[in-house]
Amino acid sequence: MISREEIITAEKIEKLVTETPIFVTSEDLLLKNLKVLEDVQNRSGAKILLALKAFSQYETFPLLNKVLFGTCASSPCEARLGKEDFGGEVTTFAAAYSNKDMEEVIKYSDHIIFNSFEAKKKYAPQIVASGKAIDMGLRINPEHSEGAVDIYNPCSETSRLGIRLKDFKSDELKDVSGFHWHTLCQQNSDAMKRTVEVVEKKFGKYFKDVKWLNLGGGHHITRNDYDIETLIEVVKYLKTTYGVEVYLEPGEAVALNAGFLVATVLDILNADMEIGILDASAACHMPDVLEMPYRPQIIGAGEKGEKKYSYRFAGKSCLAG
Predict the structure, then answer these.
(1) pLDDT in tens, 263-280
(2) Concatenated DSSP letters of 252-289
(3) CB half-sphere exposure, 278, CA atoms < 13 A
(4) Collapsing DSSP states into helix, strand and coil, what is residue 212?
(5) I need a labelling partner for 78 at 20 to 30 A (CA). Which of 1, 216, 277, 308 fits?
(6) Nearest to 281 by CA among 292, 299, 268, 266
(7) Measured in whole angstroms, how far is the alpha carbon of residue 84 from the centre of its chain?
């Protein structure tokens, strides 16, 4: 992690790095993001959790946990990392739990969120028997899509995530402390506001029966064009109208534009175009390039044809892609 005094340039990174591939995080840029998130918390009353599936560089936790309320996990190992290394509250959600998973997440979690009434019914006695003050929540599916990429759309037609209104059982809300939903991916607060309007219309009559609402992740709060005032307005509305705590789970927004993957070009060849072979791997070091997919930004680069030379970068394994 680069010290706060360092100004990030390609030249400085090159001098600092002796071996690649390596992830480099700027303290200065991370603190810049934290300042924005702290302002949102202070003015809205929301509790912001770090989504560990998006950013889990534990060397940065002593900075992050001074501002953020805790972490959200999607596995027993993430829950343990959040509890033992980050501190604060730990919220755990998975589409399903094994018996072994549940034994572990009970040890580390403050909130455990279920993807179905059946899962909640199965594990509620175990949670109660633990004697720990663990809140149980349910993930709901508002069937409202805001994402542009189907593979990242939690509310797509065949999504496994969340309970739909037609499957909602209002007579089985005993011991349910909150509701969780997630519709966003790298989006602005207008998408979040539209989602809340849909969720409120479908499930709002149950909100006064719970302690908290978790608006999930995908909020690009630290992006330059993000409309923070709309986010604050919506959070305040939910808190005032229903008397609930409101949680946000941004992952990428916490570390957005605060770090770099540094790689070395090992060889250059021509195979109908110039190709640079890197010591880094898309699959290992930046899998979203393949899964989402998207074109990663490179310091000093431009669009194809914009600069004097055009290259495709690829990893060194024998994977054909």
Answers:
(1) 999 999 999 999 999 999
(2) HHHHTTSEEEE--EEEEEESSSEEEEESS-HHHH-THH
(3) 19
(4) strand
(5) 1
(6) 266
(7) 19
> d(Cα 315, Cα 321) in Å, to the nearest integer?
9
SS3 195: helix
Q: In 3-state terms, what secondary structure has residue 139?
A: strand
Q: At what angle do helices 189-203 and 228-242 cross, to 10 degrees?
A: 20
As a whole number of angstroms, the distance between CA 161 and CA 217 comes to: 14
Closest CA to 1 of 19, 21, 20, 27: 27
Rounded Cα gap, residues 15 and 255, in angstroms: 23
Ranges of the chain whose pLDDT falls below 50: 3-5
Q: How does DSSP assign 65-118, residue by residue? A: TTTS-EEEESSHHHHHHIIIII-SEEEEE-S---HHHHHHHHHH-SEEEESSHH
pLDDT digits (tens, 9 = 90+) for 210-222: 999 999 999 999 9
Give the pLDDT score at 10.
Answer: 63
CA angle 20/25/28 to nearest 5° reads 145
Residue-level pLDDT at 118: 97
The CA dihedral of 227, 232, 233, 235, to the nearest 10 degrees, is 130
Dihedral of the alpha carbons of 72, 74, 76, 82, in degrees to the nearest 10: -20
Q: How far is the C-alpha of 172 from the C-alpha of 206, rounded, in Å?
A: 12
pLDDT score of 274 = 93
Q: Find where tokens 């501190």 sit.
A: 87
